[in-house]
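[PROTEIN RECORD]
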Amino acid sequence: MAQSFEIGQKLPATPFMVFNSFGVQMCLSECEKYVMCSSLNYNLKHFVCELNSGWKTESLSWINDDEYVYHEIPRPINKVCGAETCNADSRCVRTAFDTFVCVPVVCTDSEPVITNGIVQYRTYMPSSITYGCSPGFVDCPGTWESYAGQSYCFVTNQVLSWSNAKNICYDMKAYLMEIGSQEEQTWIRSKATQKLWFGVTDEGSEGAWYWENSRNAPTFTAWQPGEPGGGGGENCAVLDESSGWQDYPCTYTFQFVCEK
């Protein structure tokens, strides 16, 4: 190990970037590419590279950890990158044409505000922001129907997968319906005649069905004879045309009912 590495030490800081299955020289090379990288922690046992934006100071000292080595990289605030100078939020990248460019890796600008929108994903290489609707912004395409103190939205103008139907319900501040009694099921069937997704699933617990929203096991069921019978490939359920429950692959598309 090079003399500049502090063996058995690490900086107790939150890294701004972590790489797995990295060699120590690869870790050093990666740190040198990021202008904001001032030091690194390297885990010798698990080959994990942690890039830090700070150094050891009087208020932030090393801690002992036999699995780690620590290294500091003195550098100016800005870094020359070919004909460019990268700032602290950029990485110097060598292209296939043997030129150098500064690529932003951290953006300090706040996201643009979109009315009734929330940020779901953000990337920096390439730069992109994906927005979703704020919960409650999407409303029932029809009217909310009331039964026993609950409200139901019958989405019969489109068919979606179980997961997408669940997300639409979430956007309404609701959830895929939970059927609690024969009376409730009879009322639901009187409002819609096609197959309907509802909120029961055994995803992640094969054979043990539960309500996705409340996480409770159903106290009322109406499985058709031989159902559920799809095994691991059929983890969601529909209320069929004859008011029975059948399990289906969650990727199939059906109408659905949201409840709140």
User: Anything to note?
Assistant: The longest strand covers residues 150-160. The chain has three domains: 6-72, 77-134, 145-259. The chain has a mean pLDDT of 84.
